[in-house]
Specification:
adenylylsulfatase activity (chains A, B), two-stranded antiparallel sheet, about 160 residues, Bis(5'-adenosyl)-TPase_reg (chains A, B), alpha+beta, 3 helices, homodimer, HIT family, subunit A, bis(5'-nucleosyl)-tetraphosphatase (asymmetrical) activity (chains A, B)
Chain lengths: ~160, ~160
C-alpha cells in the first residue's frame, strides 16, 4: 500500500524518502543520519505517544522495525542494532509522532558504545530544527535521500 | 500464566522479581536500577537477537512493554518513557537474551537527556557483572527487589 506522501508529525515526507511501508507503518531514511545508516520507522497514524497506538499498530510497527533492522544490518555488514523510542519530550522526543530509531552497529563504530546515544540525542534535536527549516532541504538533497531510499527499497 | 522461575540468558530470575507476565513475555525489576525505576521486559524464550523472535513473540513483547511503560509512567508521575533494545554485543548488549529497557522519565531527571544513555550503557555492563557475581545478591537484596515487584504487580 503506497501513499504519495506521508506525515511525520506536522511535516510532509516525500514518498521518495520512504523505502518500505505496510498498512500501519512506514520506514524512512533520516534527514540527518547519525551514522551512514540511521533510519526511522513510524506508524502511519500520527500519535505522539507509544501508548496511544492500538495493538494492531504496535505489532505492525515492531514487526516492521524487526524486518527493516534485519535487512539493513545484513546489507551494511553490521553485527548489531540499536532500537530506541524517545517516547515523550522528557525522553528527548522532538517530533510529536512516534518513531523508532534503528541504527546498524559495528565494532568500533563509536569509540565507546554509549556515544551513540549522545549522538542520537543531538541528531534528534537537529532533525527537528532541520525539518522546521526544511523548505530548501539544506541538509541532504531530496535526490540524495531518494537514492538511499531506492537502494533500501530493493531489499524488501 | 505464572512460572516458578524465569531464565534471563544463563541466569535464573526468581519469580519474586517478576511483576507481570504473559504467555510469551515477562517484566522484571532491574538488579541495578538506573533511576529509582528501570525495568526490563523479555521474551520467555531465550534468544539473543530481536530478529529471532516470531511475529507472535514480537507483538506480545511490545504490547507488554507498552502496557508496563504506561502503568509505571503513571504510577511514578513521570511524563515520558525511554524504550531501548541493545540488540547484539556491538550495540552494548551484555546478557545474550533479548530485553527491552523501560525507564520512566521526568523533567530534570538527568541534566542533559542523553546522559540517560551513558548511564544505561554503564548499567547494562554492571548488570552482567552483577549477575555473574550474583550468588549472594550483593546489589539489591532479593527482599528489596521482591518488594518493588510486589508493588508493581498490583498495577496489572
Amino acid at each position: 500500500m503506497e501513499a504519495t506522501s506521508y506525515m511525520f508529525g506536522p511535516y510532509k515526507i516525500d514518498k521518495k524518502e520512504v523505502f518500505y511501508s505496510t498498512d500501519f507503518s512506514y520506514a524512512l531514511v533520516n534527514l540527518r543520519p547519525l551514522l551512514p545508516v540511521h533510519v526511522l520507522v513510524c506508524p502511519r497514524r500520527e500519535v505522539q505517544r507509544f501508548a496511544e497506538l492500538t495493538t494492531d499498530e504496535t505489532s505492525d510497527l515492531w514487526i516492521t522495525a524487526q524486518k527493516v533492522g534485519k535487512q539493513l544490518e545484513s546489507y551494511h555488514k553490521a553485527s548489531s542494532l540499536t532500537f530506541t523510542i524517545q517516547d515523550g519530550p522528557q525522553a528527548g522526543q522532538t517530533v510529536p509522532h512516534v518513531h523508532i530509531h534503528i541504527i546498524p552497529r559495528k565494532s568500533g563504530d563509536f569509540e565507546k558504545n554509549d556515544e551513540i546515544y549522545d549522538a542520537l540525542d543531538v541528531k534528534e534535536k537537529e532533525m527537528k530544527q532541520s525539518l522546521d527549516l526544511d523548505k530548501e532541504r539544506k541538509d541532504r538533497s531530496i535526490e540524495e535521500m531518494a537514492e538511499e531510499a531506492d537502494e533500501y527499497r530493493k531489499l524488501f
